[in-house]
């Protein structure tokens, strides 16, 4: 009970911090741009350039090479909230050139660059606002690809406010260490399964409804926390791992949508998928560990909360999640 009260105090603080951002917060805030270059013939490359959009607004970003290149006129289209351009590129060699994403330093996004060569070698690199340029090496390694997608997975979960709120709500719902471990484990298994199935193209689910139901899952768990505080112990309160598994399947589709927006290197798809998922799990466990550590500290300095005070975090989190639900339904 003291752990629950401490987590409730943390929930109150988190909800208070999130309220100013409720009108603008969306799922998967971190959406990197994606540059894919494939060598079709010696010195001839196809280029795919995908840049995130907010409504009709597109980030002003452009890939620039240090050496001599010749590009055809691009073909432009939009799909899944991104502006996509394709063109042909001629260059004597890309290896050894410096790739710069012009305008990246003025943004808060990243760029994932991937080049595949005729000889089967490939190169993958993440460019950031603080490091918008990099030199293209002779070849890339599987270890480098694994590291890039591991960091992408960590970033995605730690900046995915809706996923973190759902996990935090599960922490409030599960009482006791045993149920907590079982709940987090089943959530991990569930979203790992659907992430793999959707990313590999075995299951196709429209992304917009998934995002709306993810927000609604937070509303449901928040409502169950309130019902438990009122003395009603339904299935969700008695077996929170069932709720975690069911909604975890949906959250996995959300992760898959983010990964498809980023793009996967065709030469290392299983490796990139594995380490993206490991990054998500690492970030999730890090978040859980921080919350439990703060709750342990809060137990040493208990605040005198009235009986209704423990319900305030659930009401606040549920209200934010309901706003997200309506916001996402409006985009259908």
Automatic annotation (TrEMBL):
Transmembrane segments: 148-173, 180-202, 208-227, 239-259, 271-296, 308-326
Keyword match Signal: yes
Highest rank taxon of the organism: Bacteria
Keyword Signal belongs to the record: yes
Signal peptide: 1-27
Keywords on record: Membrane, Signal, Transmembrane, Transmembrane helix
Name of the featured protein: HupE/UreJ family protein
């Amino acid at each position: 009970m003291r752990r629950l009260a401490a987590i409730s105090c943390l929930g109150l603080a988190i909800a208070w911090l999130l309220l100013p951002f409720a009108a603008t917060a969306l799922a998967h805030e971190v959406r990197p741009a994606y540059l894919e270059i494939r060598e079709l013939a010696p010195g001839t490359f196809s280029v795919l350039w995908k840049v995130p959009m907010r409504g009709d607004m597109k980030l002003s970003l452009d890939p620039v090479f240090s050496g001599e290149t010749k590009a055809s006129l691009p073909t432009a289209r939009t799909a899944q909230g991104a502006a996509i351009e394709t063109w042909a590129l001629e260059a004597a060699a890309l290896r050894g050139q410096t790739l710069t994403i012009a305008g990246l330093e003025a943004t808060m996004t990243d760029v994932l660059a991937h080049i595949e060569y005729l000889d089967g070698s490939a190169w993958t690199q993440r460019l950031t606002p603080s490091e918008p340029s990099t030199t293209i090496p002779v070849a890339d390694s599987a270890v480098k690809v694994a590291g890039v997608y591991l960091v992408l997975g960590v970033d995605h979960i730690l900046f995915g406010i809706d996923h973190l709120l759902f996990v935090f709500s599960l922490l409030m719902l599960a009482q006791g260490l045993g149920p907590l471990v079982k709940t987090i484990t089943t959530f991990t298994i569930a979203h790992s399964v659907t992430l793999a199935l959707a990313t590999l193209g075995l299951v196709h689910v429209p992304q917009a409804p998934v995002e709306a139901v993810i927000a609604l899952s937070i509303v449901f768990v928040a409502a169950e926390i309130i019902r438990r505080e009122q003395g009603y112990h339904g299935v969700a309160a008695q077996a929170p791992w069932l709720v975690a598994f069911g909604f975890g399947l949906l959250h996995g589709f959300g992760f898959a949508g983010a990964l498809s927006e980023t793009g996967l290197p065709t030469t290392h798809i299983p490796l990139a998928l594995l380490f993206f998922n490991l990054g998500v799990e690492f970030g999730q466990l890090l978040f859980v560990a921080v919350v439990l550590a703060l709750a342990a500290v809060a137990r040493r300095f208990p605040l005198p909360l009235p009986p209704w005070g423990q319900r305030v975090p659930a009401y606040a989190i549920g209200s934010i999640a309901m706003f997200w639900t309506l916001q996402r339904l409006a985009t259908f």
